[in-house]
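Workshop exercise sheet. Pairs work together: one partner reads the sequence aloud, the other fills in the structure field after running the prediction. Swap roles for the next sheet.
Pair: D.N. / O.F.
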Amino acid sequence: MKKWKLGLSAALASMLTLAACGNNNDNTSEPQQSDNNGNATQTYTIGLTQFVEHPSLDEATKGFKQAIADAGLQVEYDEKNAQNDQNNTITIAQNFVSQKVDLIFANATPSAQAAANATTEIPIIFTSVTDPVAANLVESMEAPGSNVTGTADGHPDAIPNTMKFIAEQMGYQTVGTVYNAGEANSATQIEIMNEEAKKYNLTVVEQSVSTSSEVKQAAEALVGKVDCIYIITDNTVVSALESVIQVATDKKLPLFVGELDSVKRGGFAAYGFNYYDIGYEAGKMAVQILKDGKSPSEIPALFPPNLALHINKTAAADMGVEIKESEWTDAQYIE
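Structure field:
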């Protein structure tokens, strides 16, 4: 009898031990991923907030992700698009904060401002922001001074060079533009346009919109009043750029644009850069934070590199523009 009780006690102890082991397995987190050498690697969560879907911002997002991949980081993206609604940017940012993501990547000024207003703790990397200082995202480009840094899409020479080209190379006197006055980046650019226009005695005719559905009508309102149209890097208008291209083509109005992706889409010319490049630079900043432990305040914000004049030959023909390759020697041409 004693032997039976002893055996039962041992069996019960063994069962309890097995049960305890089972509970430990249930409570442990998923095993860490490993690299090719068998070393454990950390998986990071990045909250990705993009203001609206259009080719330029999409390219910036692609560049950001590629920089992360090239660095070999294991990342899970929580990707959200605000659909051109500033209220959505606030909700998205607040959700990222409540989820305690490791880093927020904010693509375009409204998304970046919403993220910066939502947290002073989580690192924020922005891109596609025209004037980070005016948008109150950084104290200065050289010394951001907070949990926010990133890459701008407003090269200091882009608008001045374009306005000079319009006046001196094209001989135009009136420039029409369509923009969303509710976008801080657009207000800054329109101010620069008007300052540059004074240097060349150009007249700027403005049409303001609040949604992409209003863009075509606003572009049509410029017909008969201007010699050409210049669309800055305004997210609302660029998301509906095809409607402006249609008006410009039908009415033979040369269409200047703010970046190279819009030239590829059918704009006549731009002093611009590739949004993929500024996205990639932003991704490299994220790597410095996640992998190297740097603070955003230690990483200077950057202007876009490689500013160049690009001309779309097909668009020029469609809009009645004579190309002067012998004079425009610094231009790069696409068909």
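Discussion prompt: The chain has twelve helices and 14 strands. What would you look at next?
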